Structure prediction request, 384 residues.
Amino acid sequence: MYFVTFILKNLTRRPIRTALTVLGLAVAVGSMIALLGISDNVERAITEAFERRGVDLVVIEGGPNQLGSVLDQKLVDRVRAIPGVEGVDAAMVDMIDIKTRSGSSISVMSLGWPASNFGYHDLTILAGRVLESGDRQKAMLGTTLADNLKKGVGDTVELSGEAFEVVGVFKSFNVYENGSVIILLSEAQRLTGRPGLITGFSVRVNKSADHPDADVEAVREKIMALTDEHGKPVRLTAQTTTEYVRTASHVQLTRAMVWMVSVIAVVIGVISMLNTMVMSVLERTQEIGILRAVGWPRSRVVRMVLGEAVALGLAAAAVGAVGAVGFTYLLTRFPRVNGFIEGGIAPVVILQGFALTAVIGLLGGLYPAIRAARLLPTEAIRHD
Prediction:
């Protein structure tokens, strides 16, 4: 306990420098935790949207980019006829421009669903009604989007330059759907100039209690084996929800960017820590020499310096984590991003941030620790 107290006293001897080091490192660590948290929220939200609706397979064109996927809608009926398939729902997912009251345009997610889509069952209708077959130029707004646009039932919204009447406002368990607009699939196809086409469809499988995974795999293989009228294989990718989220190009791009920024933050943190600890060792050369003269072994000097560096890092991680959580909640207040970002950060992400910060402390304090341990007591005591 005395050793830990000694380390903490060393840090408080230069309170301003310690505070500035913690603050600077907290900015880097907080940015890293915030970005990791946003990336994690994206993956969890997409996975939850499928799993809570009982989706077993996500079918898109032969590639991981659903927004760029284009499939013939006739494939839905062919898949629906496959033995073991419980239900199939097609969709056209796209980004669409919608005008705000100020006259500017924002991009929101557009969900083109048929009137029979099972996704409607998971929506809480706050006002109005759900879309019905035959509705033309009718739309439903997620509660976040409705608040951003200050629109309600009976109002008109402009989608890609065309007026749509709002017939319902809904709340979903999914943050992205709350920030989206839902129109009928036929209307989405008309707006985008892609009649008879969809971006993908979800499949639910009749699974047995004994071999659920095998049942899903059997249906997946039959979907992958579908051919066109000429007998050529249809370019389809049928994936489980977990596989889809892991391989989706937009998720992979987000994950790659987050880790790239995180690596930069780690490098900045290591340099900042290295600078602070080198200065600390130089200023305390005589003190370290006395400690060595009274019997401190080199290993104890190394542990002291590394302990100080890790303590600085963990303090910065605590400050950065609080700032990251507050920052993500603050982002949800901005209309342009609140339909794409979920506030809060998962505890596991915060733990990852603390672990990376501990690594920063160890790496940044390693050279100063070794330098301090190599000081000879006689040289250190004579140092001016």
In short: The first helix runs from residue 2 to 12. The CA atoms of residues 300 and 373 lie 8 Å apart.
